[in-house]
Design goal:
The complex is a heterodimer of chains A (210) and B (250). Chain A contains five helices and eight strands. By secondary structure, chain A is an alpha/beta fold. In chain B, 41% of the residues lie in helices and 12% in strands. Chain B has a five-stranded parallel beta sheet. Classes of the chains: A alpha/beta (210), B alpha/beta (250).
Chain lengths: 210, 250
């Protein structure tokens, strides 16, 4: 299992490095970096790539934009919230509307820092939603790395349809067999090569969209 | 008596019904809503005329059939027709009204599934492309074979077949769920009826269930022994690898 995971992380790293070395340097967009990008060295080379980090639980000042990945009525969205010192309350709304049985749903009954953080805040008002697909600069090649606790399928499926996405990495993705099949079908249709491990997957653009 | 035969497309309903044609009491009405080879779509449309299709009118038609105690009427209803009488205001989670009516009636109901939905999907794509759903209409036409027209593997068609297989599987699970309360349900797979060593015995069991022992051998020419040329097995293996559905290719 470790070998497979390493292989996939290596594929991410090498793909981004190759794009940086060539004429198509890309934006690397990390969504859900709960470890505050501590393991980013696994897959992001120390090159000139622009790296944008978004996380629901990130602390202010860590260089990570706090955000929530939101799944509601089949629409996968993401909204940024303020990064002031006081943790905002409205991101709880995103967690509460995740699909049942997803890993993120279970954050409510999580442990340690996460549970303390969540239990200390309550939903106060709805906020505007921004799709994950709108992150980054339009038209600039983008490599998404998702660590979004059970929503990789929905988000990756959406990102595969975008012309300026050159790669997607899914970490600890909890997908059903049918979701894996449908994701692979879409990847083939949209010109992406793919590799799957037990929990991880990477999609790399092979050809322009048909 | 009426017998509902519920199944997805390409589930062997026509082939099975024809096995019972030798029985004088058996009346195959075929696909109820379509003018297929053994269909009665035009008849139902006339029955409903001039009213728009309604579950009550269809119920009257079924009562008309039930009144004939001498015959067993076989009605083939495909999954995609189970919601044809749904009123527009029906909640999205509600079961199709036709399915509810079938469960409530308690009429003998045969549910035919596909253990391997990919086989059904490939057959469906093949039939859609060729326009040939039932062999006897075209069997004398030499060279009229969709597979022969595209000998090379086709990635797009292969992906379409895999997507269709997943839809077929989901449809079956949905209908199975709603039929759990049915008190006279016979559940069987296509493979058990046509492509396993016990197939003849299984067809006989269905025959006994509907009260006939006059059972013909099915026309097995349509039972595919391999994959069509357009089907890309290598690509399919990559898509299905490591999933619970990878055995579909075996």
């Amino acid at each position: 299992m470790v070998a497979v995971m390493t292989s996939i992380y290596t594929r991410m790293h090498d793909a981004i490095a190759a794009m940086d070395a060539g004429q198509s340097a890309c934006q690397v967009i990390l969504v859900g970096v709960n470890d505050q990008a501590g393991s980013a060295h696994w897959r992001i080379p120390a090159t000139g790539a622009t790296v944008l980090k978004f996380d629901a639980l990130a602390k202010p000042g860590s260089g990570v934009t706090r955000a929530v990945v939101h799944n509601h009525a089949g629409i996968i969205s993401f909204f940024e919230i303020d990064t002031s010192e006081t943790p905002p309350a409205d991101w709880i709304r995103g967690i509460s509307s995740l699909r049942p049985e997803s890993n993120a749903q279970n954050l409510r009954s999580g442990s340690g820092h996460d549970r303390a953080f969540i239990s200390a805040h309550r939903v106060s008002y709805p906020v505007a939603l921004t799709p994950v697909r709108s992150l980054g600069t339009p038209g600039v090649p983008k490599f998404f790395i998702l660590d979004v606790e059970g929503m990789d399928y929905d988000i990756a499926l959406d990102l595969l349809t975008m012309d300026d996405v050159v790669g997607i990495g899914c970490e600890h993705a909890l997908m059903s067999s049918d979701e894996v099949i449908l994701l692979r079908c879409t990847a083939i249709e949209r010109g992406f090569a793919f590799e799957f491990g037990d929990e991880d997957a990477v999609f790399l653009r092979e050809t322009a969209c048909p | 008596m009426i017998i509902f035969c519920l199944a997805g497309v390409r589930s062997g309903t026509t082939a099975l019904a024809r096995c019972f044609h030798a029985s004088p009491a058996f009346v195959n009405l075929g696909e109820v809503f379509y003018n297929a080879a053994d269909g009665m779509g035009e008849y139902v449309k006339k029955w409903e005329h001039p009213d728009r299709p309604s579950i009550s009118r269809f119920g009257e038609f079924l009562d008309f059939l039930r009144a004939d105690a001498e015959h067993n009427y076989w009605l083939d209803i495909k999954f995609h027709d189970l919601n044809r009488f749904n009123p527009p205001q029906l909640m999205v989670t509600a079961p199709p009204v036709l399915l509810q009516m079938i469960v409530k009636s308690g009429d003998p109901t045969l549910l035919i599934g596909r253990a391997n939905p990919l086989r059904a999907a490939v057959s469906r794509v093949q039939a859609q492309r060729s326009g040939i759903y039932h062999l006897e209409r075209h069997e004398d036409r030499p060279g009229h074979d969709a597979a022969g027209a595209d000998p090379a593997p086709d990635r797009a068609l292969t992906i379409e077949a895999i997507r269709t297989a997943l839809e077929t599987k989901a449809d079956l699970q949905f209908v199975e769920g709603h039929l759990r309360a049915h008190r006279n349900l016979f559940r069987v797979d296509y493979e058990a009826l046509f492509s396993c060593p016990e197939a003849a015995a299984n067809r006989a069991a269905v025959g006994a269930w509907i009260g006939t022992d006059a059972i013909r051998e099915p026309d097995l020419r349509k039972v595919s022994s391999g994959w069509p040329d357009w089907f890309d097995r290598e690509l399919s293996a990559r898509v299905l690898e490591g999933t619970a559905s990878q055995w579909w290719l075996s």
